[in-house]
Specification:
Layout: E1 7-11, H1 16-27, E2 31-36, H2 39-51, E3 55-60, H3 66-80, E4 85-88, H4 106-131, E5 137-142, H5 157-175, E6 180-187, H6 194-206, H7 211-220, H8 230-241, E7 251-255
Parallel strand pairs: 1-2, 1-4, 2-3, 4-5, 5-6, 6-7
This protein binds NADP nicotinamide-adenine-dinucleotide phosphate.
NADP nicotinamide-adenine-dinucleotide phosphate is lined by residues 11-12, 14-18, 36-38, 41, 62-64, 89-93, 119, 142, 144, 187, 189-190, 193-196.
């Protein structure tokens, strides 16, 4: 197992991405501390992991609340002795989509940029403070191909993703000399997740396509002509978090399977 004896904290663990990453980390032997701003979905993931023989704790933590994140990290240290991995999988639902930039209000534009970057900054900074004394740790997050491609009608989401990737590079430049790696993952949309279906099903309908036809269109842009599964993304996350990836920092892995060139 790749993550035996590792201690991981996952933010947004009740969501599609965070839940899959939590399951993969636990399957690879990590003790996982799962958090979300709403407790019930986090409990579901923790119970599934425990039923499969893994070690998981659930907690309600708003990843935009500095005190809540810091207090929770202290609980993790008190319980498990240290934090080895911090994974921010927070995703917000109320990003304004479908409005041309020429029509978009300033607040609607700025909200996703502020929320995504603040949450990643807070969770990374507070984890780094716990990792620096150990001269060891991995800080991770997830972005989308909007960071590198012009895509219409997505409001502030693209700049938010680009800002997170810049923050990954900057965090690494400061923390890697202290033994801490910082790495992002940039998957293509994974249709199993509620967010992708919610975002794309109306666009499919507006284009006169079924949801299945829309998925085929997205898949046709990848080299293997299919979309990545959540499990594939999560398995990659487990490898990146492991010591086997010790040479990897300051970058965001392109997991778009060829639909976007580097
Ligand atoms: N899904 C994909 O295929 C895909 C592809 C590329 C990139 N991504 C990126 O991956 C991230 C997660 O996406 P997802 O599809 O997994 O979304 P998701 O299923 O909605 O999961 C996001 C989770 O974050 C939680 N959350 C929201 N605000 C929070 C806060 N302040 N503190 C703690 N938890 C909070 C949400 O809780 P509530 O639902 O209760 O609000 C939800 O459980 C996003 O950044 C997205 O851009 C996703």
């Amino acid at each position: 197992m790749m993550l035996t004896d590792k201690v991981a904290v996952i933010y947004g663990a009740g969501g599609g991405t965070g839940g899959a990453v939590a399951r993969a980390f636990a399957r690879e032997g990590a003790t996982v501390f799962l958090t979300g701003h709403v407790r019930a979905p986090v409990d579901v993931v923790a119970k599934e992991i425990a039923a499969d023989g893994g070690s998981a704790e659930a907690a309600e933590v708003d990843a935009l609340d500095e005190r809540a994140v810091d207090d929770h990290l202290q609980t993790v240290i008190d319980t498990a002795g240290r934090v080895d991995i911090s994974f921010n999988a927070v995703g917000i639902r109320d990003v304004v989509l479908g409005v041309p930039l020429a029509e978009l209000g300033v607040e609607d534009f700025g909200m996703p940029i502020a929320v995504y970057t603040t949450s990643y900054f807070l969770t990374a900074r507070l984890a780094a403070r716990r990792m620096i004394p150990n001269r060891s740790g991995v800080i991770m997050t997830v972005t989308a191909l909007h960071s590198r491609m012009g895509i219409p009608l997505v409001g502030g989401y693209g700049p938010a993703m680009a800002a997170k990737e810049a923050l990954t590079r900057d965090l690494s430049s400061e923390l890697a000399p202290q033994g801490i790696r910082v790495v992002g993952l940039r998957p293509q949309g994974m249709p199993e997740t509620r967010t992708i279906r919610d975002a794309y099903e109306p666009r499919a309908a507006a284009s006169g396509m079924t949801w299945e036809e829309w998925q085929q269109l997205l898949a046709s842009r990848t080299h293997p002509r299919r979309l990545m599964t959540l499990e594939e993304m999560a398995n990659t996350a487990a490898f990146v978090a492991s010591d086997a990836a010790s040479g990897l920092t300051g970058t965001t892995l392109n997991l778009t399977m060829g639909s976007m060139d580097d």
